[in-house]
User: Fold this.
Amino acid sequence: MIQSYLRMAANKMPVKLVIVAGARPNFMKVAPIFAALAGDADFDAVLVHTGQHYDHAMSGSFFDDLGLPQPKYHLEAGSGSHAQQTGEILKRIEPVLIAEKPAAVIVVGDVNSTVAGALAASKMGICVIHIEAGLRSWDRTMPEEINRLATDAITDLYLITEESARRNLLREGVQPDRIHMVGNLMIDSLRRHLDQALQSGARERLTRPGPYGLVTLHRPANVDNPEQLTEILSALVEISKELPLYWPVHPRTRTRLAASSLPDNIHLLEPLGYLDFLCMQAGSSVVLTDSGGIQEETTVLGVPCLTLRDNTERPVTIDSGTNRLAGTTRESILRAWNESRTSPKQGMIPPYWDGGAGQRVKLVLRSAFLTEGQ
Ligand code: UD1
Assistant:
């Protein structure tokens, strides 16, 4: 299969790649690809920003912190229902692909920009490369699970972060030689920027002296339903009696929280930039989150993570890492909080989460698109 993508021997043009990013958790995954390809005359990588996230705190600040190149195209798709947002991206990316004629489109993660980029490329017969392929929560009420399934159904090359993904893809009938373990690009960014983050002074700037916990919450299932949100808040209030909590609030959650009155020991913050958030994570005693990527970052940082969900698409963070599923009821969250203190997990870092994922992505690209000896 891979042979079909090999560049013709006579064609010395660089291999054109369109790399799609659009939402906050995409930016730290594409940055290491650009770093790995920088200065390599065999590749011409073009960044397309879909505009799914657009506030400076959700997008622009990440370009600054991660040293990402400015996008060649900004689609400004913006917010909307899933159909509107996905449809806008789909419509707006097609002319870019017609103009650029890439050999491949690279999509990352599981957001609406991921599935829209993959679908537009696939319909045009362009090779689709999915980074972070094969993760499954088995929960189709999660918009991200639909995005993962739909993207992987039309992907050509599957680049995976953990072995559970390989098993899932094989079960779904993907040919083994299309699956490549590259490790975790998000962890490349973490390792590259951790020292800088620790020196950012975010902890001193944003917290009072002493131990603290860090909270993030933005899944529709957790924050859009007032009863569910109240249940989680009631657990957080209880925990905050023992440990001050700092909570950078996602825009989706901000509007939902407006009516709640929270105790002084729960400190609401504006969304943080990449370096500030990394610094806050590294310094925290526990992280309570419903994010996907934060489960992985805490595992590498050795910080206990309580995932406020009933499932995770990243089981390696539970099996090897510091993550625990805490559920979403007051009782289950408080039980997990107590367990995390009485029997802390000695986490191990999963294989290939070593800072070398960008280079491994490049090796896969070379073997897929460049004939030997070129
Ligand atoms: C999206 C992703 C989710 C990811 C999350 C990270 C999908 C289906 N969801 O969820 O997987 O974990 O990003 O943040 O792709 N808003 C702003 N400013 C912005 C962006 C959004 O104010 O820059 C507000 C808007 O009111 C918007 C709402 O936040 O309607 C939700 O944004 P949206 O991109 O639809 O979904 P997220 O919850 O951010």
